[in-house]
Fold this protein.
Amino acid sequence: MLAASTALMWGVLPVMLSGLLNTLDPITTTFFRFFVAAILITPYLILRGKLVNRHKMASFNLVRQLLFAGLFLTINYALYILGLEKTSAEASQVMMQISPVLLLLAGVWVFKEQFSPLQWCGFIIFSSGLIMFFSPRFDDVFISLSDYGIGLLMLMGAAVSWVGYAIIQKVLLREFNAEETMLVFYWIGAIVFLPFSSFDSLDQLTSLQWLLLLLCGFNTLIAYGCFSESMVHVEASRVSAVIAITPLVTVSIVQLIPIPGIIAEPLFLVSLIGALCVVGGSVLTATAKLKALETIK
């Protein structure tokens, strides 16, 4: 249920962000995502006595790792929302599925993990799904390199930067709890984006957009909280398998619910099959290793 909650919140996030980008610029929007999450989690952790490893901040090596992880996450947020502005909610979520697959591949190189033949099959299905989903837009990416194509490249960069964050985060969790690291990351993001933010458009926000802005901050905090807590209760591969449904949540919302100001991605049969292959390939890549181990046992 925790992993499903994460998938649901990440699925609705690009829809909420798209509703804000009509008035607020991407950088300012992202600043508020970090800032709202930071001011909510800081008093909570202090009052609950969760900052038990703060003495480790005296270690230069650990502080450097925290800074690099925070900067990678900041770059991820920036490229994601800039890519979302140029593409669509559905395209952004399908492209971001590259992140968990790349993380699994990085595990082979960085952590010397094994990648089974069935996982490679899942990776091939996933890659084929990406090609099918974006096939109607090939001209935008490979020929004219329109704004849409540039947006997809930004989303790809966002996925890669998230992998860099996740690798360092995995190392940091040996020394800190998840809440402590996220507290640092949220403040890093807020501080980095503050000088580049413009607050002139805030008076143009409607009541609904103010609500969306606050919800984006809550979404950032709660989604990552549910994600971290789900990892405590079940295997990472099972969590990844559940979260892989995120693009289907976004596609369903945008395609089935008319939302003012949000243009739905034109979905052809090949695009729909591609989206299903992306999700199926991601699930297979995440769970194939686990199934093989269960068979051996």
User: Anything to note?
Assistant: Confidence is low (pLDDT under 50) at residues 291-297.
